[in-house]
Specification:
This protein is mainly α and 278 residues long. 62% of the residues lie in helices and 4% in strands. It is built from 11 helices and 4 strands; from the N terminus they run ααβαααααβββαααα. A hairpin with a 2-residue loop joins strand 2 and strand 3.
Length: 278
Amino acid sequence: MLRNRPKVVDIELAEASVAPARLDGYPSFADFIAKDRDAAIYRKFERLSARSLLYQQSELHELERQLEQLDWEDATDIGNEEAQQAARYWTNFIHDTNDKAYARQTLQGTIRVKLKEYHEAMLLEAKVLSLNSPTSRTLRDFRKWFVSNSVPVLWGRDKDLYKNELDLVALAPVDSDRLNNFLKRFFGWIFKERREDLPHGGDLFYFPERRIQRAGAAISAILSAILLIGAIVCLLGVSNKGIGIRTGMIVLFTCLFAAVVGLLTNARRAEIFGSTAA
């Protein structure tokens, strides 16, 4: 009697042919941020930071009061020779063994630790405050991905994690070039690249930053050449005209050049004045 041969399945080959499932939530969220540095957007928790600094400040204020109280007691106790010497000699201060000297040493050690923590917290807060907020375009796309098909990536209280845009910070450097931002906002789809690994929000697309920068540099060079050559050609064309027409032509191209530099770049006022004067 004929029997069907059992089908042999290569388990490793079968597992390799099936794409691993991506777990939605923190794993997919981390994957999304890792694939695009512009998506590195986080809460600053400014209110919590300010409150923590205020508590540390008040704690040090109280320690300062305690130290001033000890100083006042030693200053009024003229007959206490040990206290008077401890105020002038480091060796006496550190080696005194009476209760008041021990209290002062302990208090000074506490102040040193708390003051170090306070200063480190202030420096870290200053660094956080110097970070840029995400651009409106980046934040719009980020929120679009975060809440795809009306289902947020994170649940519970975290579904409202990114509602307050004033408390958000972008860790990646923000491109402040106006021309580049214009290209990103209105023509980003031209520079997109094919990505099959978009998690959660598949209707988004990526475009490399280098493509935008190259396009912006090319457009800037073309506009500069047009203004330079156009000014020369126009001035040659009106060379036999009156001084008023030639002056007006110079003013026109100077204003056009200043407008291009001011609107399409992130140049400061001094740089605009310098380039226009040149």
